[in-house]
């Protein structure tokens, strides 16, 4: 299936999101042992798990792909099992339960709490800062690729390419501060127990059912005002984010390597909405003006390791517009990318 082909339905979308690139297949050919995905029931977890299963099979390697979560959705658990992913139900904040999880040399860490963090600050810190310590003790001898966020950088001038991994971290708000706490916990256990880790600062992945582009397209389609204060953003097709994530395992180091994971383009909210409007036959409505700062990440280190994304922003905008115009399903989970005060 060519990358530019339109995506017509959920089955095609899930297939495209989980389709391993040749680089991912090669990564699994070289990767030894089983893979555990912690927090697999989130937005990206299912397609990451399916990609791992497909890549392992294509690489001819016999290994277990194990997805761990509380699985409030039995249908998701059954769907993963149907695609060859083993599942284990576990409350990851239960340290004794985590200790009973199977050992594995490769661990993908996905849990995190962002939305609803305001008003539940203690749970946010437990999920984002205490849980990494639990996992680090359990999987001290494993390679760990752990998801973080570009929010650890804070806002930068909107005229620049974005924050680099070497920049000073300046998180705004308790969510972002707790995410820096997550990174520091992984760094501490990496340094004290020689655990090889990659910290993936994601900002933002786009599935046609959610993401910054979906947030903007829904407003344009509904004729709702688009706030321009956060006037610029980065985004990346989730299928590319998935592929680059699996390729990270070969680069796990002690102390951890941090990589920004996002698209190469610095996108204007105003111009993107105008493109979406033309594709969907709607005139966008704007409110306010662009502030001089935005949350932006520069992913040149990632592209140097893994190459450029297969899907560029124009293709992604076209996919999102076509998906929503035809009434495609959304998860109704706004990114709140426009928040400038760190409150989510």
What does this structure look like?
The protein is an alpha/beta fold and 344 residues long. The protein has one domain (10-207, 237-265, 295-310): Rossmann fold. It has twelve helices and 15 strands. The strands form five sheets. Strands 3-2-1-4-5-7-12 form a seven-stranded parallel sheet, sandwiched between helices. α3 (45-58) links the parallel β1 (35-38) and β2. The model has no long low-confidence stretch (mean pLDDT 95).
Blueprint of the fold:
Elements: H1 10-17, H2 22-30, E1 35-38, H3 45-58, E2 65-69, H4 74-82, E3 86-89, H5 95-99, E4 106-109, H6 121-138, E5 143-149, E6 156-157, H7 173-193, E7 196-202, E8 205-206, H8 212-222, E9 225-227, E10 232-233, E11 236-237, H9 238-247, E12 257-261, E13 267-268, H10 269-280, E14 285-287, E15 293-294, H11 300-306, H12 313-325
Helix pairs in contact: 2-3, 2-9, 3-9, 6-7, 8-10, 8-12, 10-12
What do we call the CATH topology?
A: Rossmann fold
Element string (H = helix, E = strand):
HHEHEHEHEHEEHEEHEEEHEEHEEHH
The backbone outline, from C-alpha atoms, is globular
* Secondary-structure content class: alpha/beta
């Amino acid at each position: 299936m060519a990358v530019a082909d339109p995506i017509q339905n959920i089955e095609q979308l899930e297939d495209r999101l989980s389709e391993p690139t040749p680089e991912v297949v090669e990564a699994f050919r070289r990767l030894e042992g089983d893979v555990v995905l912690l927090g697999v029931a989130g937005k990206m977890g299912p397609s990451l798990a399916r990609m791992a299963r497909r890549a392992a099979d294509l690489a001819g390697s016999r290994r277990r792909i194990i997805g761990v979560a509380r699985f409030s959705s039995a249908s998701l658990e059954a769907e993963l099992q149907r695609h060859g992913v083993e599942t284990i139900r576990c409350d990851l904040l239960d340290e004794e339960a985590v200790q009973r999880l199977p050992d594995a040399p490769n661990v993908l860490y996905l849990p995190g709490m962002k939305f609803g963090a305001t008003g539940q600050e203690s749970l946010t810190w437990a999920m984002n800062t205490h849980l990494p310590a639990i996992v680090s003790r359990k999987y001290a001898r494993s390679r760990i690729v752990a998801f973080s966020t570009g929010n650890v950088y804070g806002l930068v001038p909107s005229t620049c390419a974005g924050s680099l991994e070497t920049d000073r971290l300046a998180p705004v708000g308790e969510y972002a501060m707790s995410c820096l706490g997550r990174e520091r916990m992984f760094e501490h256990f990496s340094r004290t127990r020689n655990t090889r880790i990659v910290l993936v600062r994601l900002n933002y992945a786009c599935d046609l059912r959610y993401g910054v582009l979906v947030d903007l397209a829904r407003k344009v389609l509904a004729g709702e005002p688009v706030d321009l204060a956060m006037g610029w953003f980065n985004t990346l097709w989730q299928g590319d984010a998935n592929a680059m994530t699996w390729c990270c395992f070969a680069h796990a180091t002690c102390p951890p390597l941090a990589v920004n994971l996002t698209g190469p383009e610095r996108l204007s909210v105003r111009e993107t909405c105008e493109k979406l409007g033309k594709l969907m036959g709607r005139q966008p409505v704007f409110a306010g003006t662009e502030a001089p700062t935005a949350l932006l990440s520069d992913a040149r280190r990632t592209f140097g390791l893994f190459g450029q994304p297969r899907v560029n922003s124009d293709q992604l905008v076209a996919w999102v517009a076509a998906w929503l115009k035809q009434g495609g399903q959304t998860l109704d989970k706004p990114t709140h990318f426009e928040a400038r005060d760190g409150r989510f």
